[in-house]
Specification:
Layout: E1 5-10, H1 14-17, H2 20-29, E2 36-41, H3 47-53, E3 58-66, E4 69-77, E5 80-85, H4 90-97, E6 104-107, H5 128-141, E7 148-151, H6 158-172, H7 177-186, E8 188-189, E9 192-195, E10 198-200, E11 215-217, E12 222-226, E13 238-241, H8 245-266, H9 274-279, H10 281-295, H11 306-317, H12 326-329, H13 333-352, H14 357-368
Parallel strand pairs: 1-2, 1-6, 2-5, 3-11, 6-7, 7-8, 12-13
Antiparallel strand pairs: 3-4, 9-12, 10-11
Length: about 375
């Protein structure tokens, strides 16, 4: 028996297809009966056409290291039922919104999606918050219950911000106060944090010719979801937490901080990628010292599992299948140093009464440059 369409997903790019859509597929395969996904394509391109041509089916190649084991496996994902194009099939999107079976909305519109458009059209909305408002308005007027909204954009706090944007659009459109109260009371706006590197279409794979949606990702994944009551389904990569902020802090200070520290140390020495840098005996040893002697100690009383996460980060950096260029990480370097390294320096100094030696050297070189 075919499962009902329970999820409306804004965005059908490689990230969601190798992240949330994989989790839904695996939960369904275990008999949890989460349901199927309707993808809404909001940008130009042929992704919806490809999804429909392949009946929502595609493969994800997981390649990397996990607990020291080399992983190279391919999963056939079957969680998507169909795809709709927002610009030309908006009426069909509203029909999905009015389905009693619908339970949640997932999105990954990038940070640029968190904006309102002046004079947006309530009949053919253009911004993501306006489109989401139209979805909720259709359910409200149909007398249907609210939904769980789980945004995957890398903004903090994404659920709270999205709720305020939707309510702001409701005010701009002068929609009735009853709808606005319903949106506040009945819709579950969930703050989340996502973490997985999805590298996109692989250069070589036996399925390249037959699957135009083939994509590759690392084995590691974490979806931190705020509030156990908002649990969409059970999955080992989905972690229900009382507050996602410590997990966001852990990611920024350890993973992103180690990336930026590596750029400072390794680029002048010649390595072009993260993998090459951590594979260098001297640089690899230096990075481990920075992470475990200075970054983790400044965090371990603020976030849980800081040391375990740091070990996973260094293993992810050594992924033999991923060429993450230091040049790309170096973009917007000044801002990254201010956000990722300087707060750790200050936290270490406050906790231990002395400056961290290695971070201090990095910041001194940065200020002198």
């Amino acid at each position: 028996m075919e499962l009902p369409e329970t999820i409306l997903q804004f965005g059908g790019g490689s990230f969601l297809r190798a992240f949330a859509d994989v989790f839904v597929h695996e939960a369904n395969a275990r008999g949890e009966a989460v349901g199927r996904i309707v993808v809404v394509q909001s940008t130009d391109g042929n992704r919806a056409a490809l999804l429909n041509a392949q009946r929502g089916r595609y493969h994800v190649v997981f390649r990397g290291l996990s607990d020291g084991e080399r992983i190279d496996r391919t999963l056939a994902v079957r969680s998507i039922s169909r795809a709709l194009i927002a610009k030309s099939e908006w009426a069909e999107v509203i029909q999905v919104a009015q389905s009693p079976a619908l339970r949640m909305v997932i999105s990954n519109t990038t940070e640029a999606g968190y904006t309102l458009i002046d004079n947006d059209d309530p009949e053919m909305p253009r911004s993501f918050p306006a489109r989401l408002l139209c979805i909720l308005k259709a359910r409200y007027r149909a007398g249907l219950p609210g939904l769980s909204v789980l945004p995957c954009e890398l903004v903090e706090p994404n659920g709270d911000l999205l709720r305020e944007l939707v309510l702001g659009q409701a005010v701009a459109w002068r929609l009735d106060s009853g709808l606005q109260d319903w949106i506040r009371r009945e819709v579950r706006w969930v703050n989340t944090l996502v973490d997985r590197i999805v590298s996109g279409r692989p250069d070589a794979h036996p399925l390249l010719a037959s699957d135009r949606l083939l994509t590759a990702a690392e084995p590691f994944a974490l979806w931190a979801v705020e509030g156990k009551a908002e649990a969409p389904f059970a999955h080992p990569c989905v972690r229900y937490v009382p507050d996602v902020r410590p997990y966001a802090l852990r990611k920024v200070r350890i993973l992103n901080g180690a990336h930026t520290a590596l750029v400072c140390k390794a680029r002048p020495s010649g390595p072009r990628t993260v993998r090459e840098a951590v594979g260098d005996p001297a640089i690899g040893k230096w990075l481990r010292r920075v992470v475990f002697e200075e970054i983790v100690p400044a965090l371990e009383y603020v976030v849980e599992d800081a040391g375990q996460f740091a070990e996973q980060v260094l293993e992810r950096f050594a992924n033999p299948f991923l060429d993450h260029r230091l040049e790309a990480i170096a973009l917007h370097h000044d801002e990254k140093v201010r956000v990722r390294l300087m707060p750790t320096y200050e936290a270490y100094l406050k906790a231990f009464g002395r400056p961290p030696e290695l971070l201090g050297e990095i910041l001194a070189l940065y200020r002198a440059s």
